[in-house]
Design brief:
Blueprint lengths: L1 H27 L11 H33 L5 H34 L5 H31 L7 H16 L3 H8 L5 H7 L4 H4 L2 E6 L2 E5 L1 E2 L7 E3 L6 E7 L4 E4 L8 E7 L2 E8 L2 H6 L1 E4 L2
Antiparallel strand pairs: 1-2, 1-9, 3-5, 4-5, 5-6, 6-7, 7-8
């Protein structure tokens, strides 16, 4: 998360440098702004498009990522506030560009519907007024978004979760899990969870046949957090791995139980059997997940 967040910060900063450089070139270009031939005929319009639309819009994209990172990050000091104000500036510039472009289109569309000059002036005045009001509310909304610290998760929560996960892997306790389930766990399942197991070391793509494949991203440690309840039957299931869009479950109680995939689609939660035994699932042709 830190790497992606800092990458977004660098992107936002680079866009800002290019924007100010473009503004400086445009300011110092003098009569070249009105040039009708030569390279400036292309350079000046390109700079103006970048200053008014391209740069701010790209900065807005980076800005939302930066805000997400700042909300997640533990450090909430002055540097975070400066970045929030910096991002809000670019969001405001980009939002103003959208409003002005929309207002210009609205004026031209309305001008075609009226014939008198007085009516056109009235339309222009109304559009300018609405644009100014829109910019005001836009600014307030953007500042609210930029200064908000709401986040689904945080650095502290993720660190705590990572430490808890690390402890679970360091202290494999199959006996407690078997006691909770009231049955013996499959030998193949225990082997998967052991240190040095290829299933723990890497992520895999399984191909039972040519037109189907399953991604095993990472394993779920054998503790209480791995217990699930089937949405259809209510029975206790054991989650042993994460997929790219769901999980893989076992039905506890057998020496070689079937494997199920659990995911959510438009109809709700789905639990579907994909292999009649765990040994079949583990025996499918596999390649390292990329």
């Amino acid at each position: 998360m830190h790497r992606e967040g800092r990458k977004s910060m660098r992107g936002c900063g680079l866009i800002a440098l290019l924007w100010f450089a473009g503004a400086l070139v445009l300011t110092m270009s003098g009569d070249k702004v009105n040039a009708k031939e030569g390279p400036w005929v292309i350079i000046i319009p390109a700079i103006m498009i970048y200053l008014s639309l391209g740069g701010p819009f790209i900065a807005m994209i980076y800005g939302y990522k930066v805000i997400h990172y700042l909300n997640w990050r533990r450090d909430k000091g002055m540097g975070s506030l400066v970045w929030r104000l910096f991002v809000s500036f670019w969001m405001l510039i980009g939002g103003m560009g959208i409003l002005i472009l929309a207002a210009d289109n609205a004026y031209h569309a309305a001008s075609k519907m009226v014939e008198t000059q007085g009516a056109k002036q009235m339309v222009a005045g109304v559009i300018i007024l609405l644009t100014c009001v829109g910019v005001r509310f836009l600014g307030l909304g953007i500042m609210r978004v930029a200064l908000s610290t709401k986040a689904v998760t945080s650095e502290d929560k993720d660190l705590a979760a990572a430490e808890s996960l690390e402890r679970a892997w360091e202290q494999l306790d199959f006996a407690s899990l078997e006691q909770q389930l009231g049955c013996t766990l499959p030998v193949a399942y225990k082997a998967m969870m052991q240190p040095g197991s290829e299933w723990r070391e890497k992520s895999w793509t399984l191909r039972p046949h040519r037109v189907a494949w399953f991604h095993v991203i990472d394993l779920v440690p054998p503790d209480r957090s791995a217990l699930r309840k089937s949405p259809a039957t209510g029975e206790v299931m054991l989650c042993f791995a994460n997929a790219d869009s769901g999980e893989y479950w076992l039905r506890p109680g057998g020496e070689d139980p079937p494997v199920y995939t659990h995911y959510t689609d438009h109809s709700g939660e789905v639990v579907e059997e994909i292999a009649p035994q765990l040994s079949v699932f583990l025996g499918w042709k596999k390649a390292e997940y990329e």
